[in-house]
Amino acid sequence: MSEMAGGGPSLPEDLLIWEILTRLPVKPLLRCRAVCRSWRRRLTSDAKFLLAHHRRQASLPLLTSWDEDTHERRIDVLDHRTGERHPVGRTTGRTAASEDDFQDDLHVFASCDGLIVLHAYGGLEICNPATRQRAPLTRLHGAACISALYPHRPSGSYRVLCCFKRAEDGHAVYHVHTVGSGELRCVGEPPGPWASGDLAMAVSMMGFLDPPVLADGRIYWHPLKLPGSNAGNGKGKVNNMLVFDTMSESFQHLLSPVDGPFLELFEMNNGALGLYHYRGSSTDLWVLKDHRSWSWSLNSRIKLDVLFFSLLPVMDPEGDVLVLSDRGESGILWQYLHHISGANGSLLALYKWSAYLRLTRQRLKASLVRHDFFWMEGNAGSMDEKPLFDGLSTVVVLRDDNSESSQQDGVTHDSELSSNNSTAD
């Protein structure tokens, strides 16, 4: 394949494979399997190539949406670079056996390495949207919360950290489940007040809106104010973080570098833990530098000219952020999504947004890496009767050329994300 038709100059095979093909999105790469037998073998089963390809894919935020008329619920990936929502999965209609809205709902609980743990059709499962494979997580039935999905490098397995409420005293007790096995192993209670009372319930509920963050082999919960802090005067700092070490399977306590209600944790491109602190007219980026001393460093500051109610880091070297703000006179159902440069705080793009579109704190980095637990007997079965990947389309963001602000300061002002303008996926 390194020789071109007609005898012209050709690219070296290694350059073509490792520098070009590894950068392609999943769908164009899969089409390349038709080129020749050697490419089909490599693009299908070469573990080294598939891992290299995964590492070069963009890490993009997941969002959920629902249609009040059809009861369709969707999970999409938001590509802020192109202004598109790429489909991940959907559920349609109401199930006959459901007794509440949660049974019919579609929730994302955890994501890691191209895999997501979700609730669909009344059950928990793990899936890979790129390969459209699914497997049930029956051992997690009855869990109070799903905290994280993470890789266990020594064994090559993937594990789920989850929490169960102990019947006799209501304490939060954490367990680890190895995906593809029957193992559900207790790793104990978190320290101090984290395991009991209102705080245990708050940690469980907060995990849905602000899920724990996996960074450098540890799982970090969002900062909270511990009960009884600061001499019990109710003015304790909101800077107490629970940490779970995935190797030692032990809990620790960490203080965030700043205090306040507007803190956003995330994993940076280099694997370190980052924390954005919103300060009104600007937001500071703090980085956890040393796990032994738990020392933090102020990395950068972004000036913001917009009042917002939600911030989401963009995984790129510049430290860009996505923020949501009210659209003003249009009411709470309609909002603006701003893409803001981390380098100088300039507005790179502005999109109309709907409250029916919910940006999650989970991210997806597409992967074609093979996992044995998807091939285990019984993992296809009845789930095929409840389609998760059928009938999906890419939703395109349309340019609004009539917008007055579209010509100012290099801002691209787009109309709302509309499924009336879509391309087949």
Overview of the structural elements:
The protein has six helices and 27 strands. The chain is mainly beta and 425 residues long. The strands form six sheets. Strands 24-1-2-3-25-27 form a six-stranded antiparallel beta sheet, with no helix packed on it. A hairpin with a 2-residue loop joins strand 4 (107-112) and strand 5. Residues 396-425 have low confidence and may be disordered.
Keywords, please?
disordered C terminus, five-stranded mixed β-sheet, mainly beta, 38% strand, 425 residues
What's the gist of this structure?
The protein has helices at 13-20, 26-31, 37-45, 47-55, 101-104, 197-209; strands at residues 60-66, 73-79, 84-91, 107-112, 115-120, 123-128, 133-136, 145-152, 157-165, 172-178, 184-188, 213-215, 218-220, 240-245, 250-255, 263-267, 273-278, 282-290, 295-303, 310-313, 321-326, 334-340, 347-354, 357-364, 393-396, 412-414, 422-424.
Strand order, biggest sheet?
Answer: 24-1-2-3-25-27
How far apart are the termini? 28 Å
Class of secondary structure makeup: mainly beta
Q: What is the number of beta strands?
A: 27
Q: Could you tell me the strand content as a percent range?
A: 35-45%
Helix content: 10-25%
Outline the biggest β-sheet.
6 strands, antiparallel
SSE layout and pairings?
Elements: H1 13-20, H2 26-31, H3 37-45, H4 47-55, E1 60-66, E2 73-79, E3 84-91, H5 101-104, E4 107-112, E5 115-120, E6 123-128, E7 133-136, E8 145-152, E9 157-165, E10 172-178, E11 184-188, H6 197-209, E12 213-215, E13 218-220, E14 240-245, E15 250-255, E16 263-267, E17 273-278, E18 282-290, E19 295-303, E20 310-313, E21 321-326, E22 334-340, E23 347-354, E24 357-364, E25 393-396, E26 412-414, E27 422-424
Parallel strand pairs: 23-26
Antiparallel strand pairs: 1-2, 1-24, 2-3, 3-25, 4-5, 5-6, 6-7, 8-9, 9-10, 10-11, 12-13, 13-14, 14-15, 16-17, 17-18, 18-19, 20-21, 21-22, 22-23, 25-27
